[in-house]
Design a protein that fits this description.
The chain is of the alpha/beta class and 428 residues long. The protein has helices at 10-18, 46-59, 74-82, 100-104, 112-117, 119-122, 127-131, 156-162, 170-182, 196-210, 212-220, 230-244, 261-267, 280-287, 289-294, 331-338, 344-352, 363-366, 372-383, 392-395, 398-412, 418-427, and strands spanning 36-42, 64-70, 90-93, 134-135, 138-139, 142-143, 148-155, 186-189, 271-277, 296-299, 314-317, 321-324, 388-390. Helices cover 45% and strands 14% of the residues. This is Sugar-binding protein.
């Protein structure tokens, strides 16, 4: 499932970065001991990193330990620790806007020299994935988890009963909306109660219409510029066309993703399609194993005629990253530890735990996945993508991302027009 960033804590905890001496330690950091502390977001997948630490400790004179931090306050704990003497040596993050404040205050170790000195390691990752660990063109993150692209899932049975095929163009999308409405089926499940799900539509539309350069300008200016690009307005207009045509039904604003409601609409055939991150496969597998294995279809988001974006571009979460703090007393060991994320044992552990790796030439490993067909589709989709756009709310600093998601919700709920939406974002 999507590992969320918790932008709501940004205001208070950002003070820790600006006044480090005023912040107490977050626990689990360096603390003056001889161990190298690796902070991890606490979830079931941490077993992969635990295996890497065990192998590292067998070969290194430095002892590494994993400090698991509960997900509901990970970023808050990290910000507090980074503003104290208890900062970790290596830590899990989302790349992009999640680490930019630390980069601006020279708290992170640039990794370009390390990659240049280890070209085999640098070339072991899918380029579009590795690039997502950069800030201002400098590498600060090394991939540590699987990919999470946004995929268009569909119910094969519902499509067969309607006598239609999965969409290959935007015009196909619009035609399918009409078809499924006539069939009494909601064309698209949408968990509007969790507005980050609505963001996915705009991410793909802006990229397909204007290419990745549009959002790159927004990121470069930290949200101050770029929202007035014509591609953003056109994407907002297309969203409103979908909403007004009934593409998401009438009650999408009250449908929850975290409670599984949107996924259930798809698996039960009450919705025909669902635009969602790759974790949707695992979600439905847990809900309805038979449907997931026999009747769940998946395709890439279709191209838009006349659009400047490459139709093979992908949006979502490229992966999560390890970064190294600049003042760690274990710099050599920390950089060595990063190289473990591309080893065969690490990749095999990822696949065994249902993740799709970020390394090149992983086709044979992916074939051993518990769900090989889907894993292969996802791997090839990401491997062949010229560009992988990090989710907007993770690419931008929290003080921009949080109100941006609110404006997206207002657009979908009809509380603002496309023009008002663009104006509101430009004002951020």
């Amino acid at each position: 499932m999507r590992t969320p960033r918790l932008g709501s804590v940004a205001g208070a905890t950002a003070l820790c970065l600006l006044a480090a001496t005023a912040c107490s330690g977050g626990g689990g950091g360096g603390g003056g001991d001889d161990q190298m502390h690796v902070w991890m977001y606490q979830d079931t997948l941490v077993v992969v990193q635990e295996g890497a630490v065990e192998r590292f400790n067998e070969a290194s004179e430095t002892e590494a330990v994993i400090d698991e931090v509960p997900g509901d306050n990970y970023e808050e704990r990290l910000r507090t620790a980074m503003g104290s003497s208890e900062r970790p040596d290596v830590f899990f993050n989302w790349g992009g806007g999640s680490i930019e404040p630390y980069v601006e205050q020279d708290m992170l170790q640039p990794l370009d020299d390390m990659l240049a000195d280890n070209p085999e390691f640098a070339e072991s990752f899918i380029p579009s994935i590795l690039e997502a660990g950069q800030v201002n063109g400098v590498q600060y993150g090394i991939p540590l988890r699987g990919t999470q692209p946004v995929i268009l899932f569909y119910n094969e049975t519902v499509f067969e009963e309607a006598g239609v095929e999965p969409p290959e163009t935007w015009e196909d999308i619009l035609g399918l909306v009409d078809t499924f409405k006539e069939e009494g089926v909601t064309p698209f499940a949408l968990a509007g109660a969790d507005p980050w799900t609505e963001q996915m539509w705009l991410q793909y539309l802006v990229d397909r219409i204007g290419g990745p350069e549009v959002f790159a300008e927004i990121v470069e200016s930290k949200g101050a510029e770029g929202w007035d690009d014509p591609a953003v307005l056109e994407a907002a207009q297309m969203v409103r066309e979908l909403v007004d045509s009934g593409a998401f039904g009438d009650s999408y604003a009250s449908v929850s993703y975290t409670e599984g409601a949107a996924s259930t609409l798809l698996s039960e055939g009450r919705a025909a399609m669902h635009l969602m991150g790759s974790w949707e496969y695992s979600t439905i597998l847990d809900q309805d194993e038979e449907f997931a294995q026999e009747n769940l279809g998946y395709v890439e988001f279709p191209p838009i005629e006349g659009g400047e974006g490459d139709p093979d571009n992908v949006v979502g979460n490229p992966t999560n990253f390890f970064s190294v703090t600049a003042e760690t007393e274990h710099m050599d060991a920390a950089l060595e530890f990063l190289t473990y994320t591309s080893e065969e044992e690490y990749v095999a552990d990822m696949v065994a735990n249902g993740e799709v790796p970020t390394t090149v030439n992983a086709e044979e490993a992916v074939a051993d996945s518990p769900s090989p067909d889907f894993a292969t589709f996802q791997y090839e989709m990401v491997r062949d993508a010229p560009h992988f756009q990090l989710s907007w709310d993770q690419a931008l600093p929290p003080d921009v991302a949080t109100p941006m998601v609110t404006e997206i919700e207002s657009l979908f709920n009809g509380q603002s027009t496309p023009e008002q939406f663009v104006d509101a974002l430009a004002a951020l």
